[in-house]
Design brief:
single chain, alpha/beta, six-stranded mixed sheet, about 40% helix, about 15% strand
């Protein structure tokens, strides 16, 4: 399967001019604010501050925040935790019609889980130029080989989402005793894709 952005039709990506209009969606902003609250929970636990929630019919089905360090589980990304909670809530691993809100562009692992859950839409805040799989680095969610079409909207509240991550890693760089636990994956977090 080809996952590189250059092999996906450009029409399947959100353009920069579309980003400003998308971030004005009132519901997107409301739910992204909740995702930011969840990201702060992760930060309080010493985790990379990423928060996620699954919403359908204006109701939260599941929430999550990054927990891989504390749980010793490399799959405990915010998106996966939220997907698991939502699936338990509805009693089905298929979450047809649901939307995921997450403060950071999903990685390839999370993108795969999102596709298997059959989500309708993914809305994310900060772009991840190094590991983002919703168009920044890879295009897993936009791949013509994907299991189904999924709407992707990036850059919603990108400034506060990106700033939370930047501040977290700036603090970690000043405390070398903690930096080794997290690696260097997020050095290129920004609000621009």
């Amino acid at each position: 399967m080809c996952l590189l952005c250059t092999h996906v039709p450009l029409s399947r990506f959100v353009t920069k001019s579309d980003r400003a209009a998308q971030s004005m969606n009132v519901n997107d902003n409301k739910w992204m604010q909740r995702a930011l609250d969840l990201a702060r929970k992760a930060q309080a636990q010493g985790e990379v501050p990423v928060g996620a929630l699954i919403v359908m019919d204006d109701a939260i089905l599941g929430e999550g925040w990054n927990q891989p360090v504390g749980t010793h589980d490399p799959t405990a990304h915010a998106e996966i935790v939220a997907l698991r909670a939502a699936a338990r809530q509805v009693g089905n691993y298929r979450l047809n019609g649901a939307t995921l809100y997450v403060t950071l562009e999903p990685c390839a692992m999370c993108a795969g889980a999102i596709l298997h859950a059959r989500l309708k839409c993914v809305v994310f805040g900060a772009y991840d130029a190094r590991a983002g799989a919703a168009g920044s680095r890879l295009a897993v969610l936009q791949s013509p080989h994907a299991l189904h079409d999924i709407e992707v909207r990036g850059g919603v509240l990108h400034e506060p989402c990106g700033q939370l991550l930047k501040d977290f890693f700036a603090t970690r760089r000043r405390r070398p005793d903690k930096a080794h636990k997290l690696g260097g994956r997020f050095n290129s977090i920004s609000g621009e894709g």
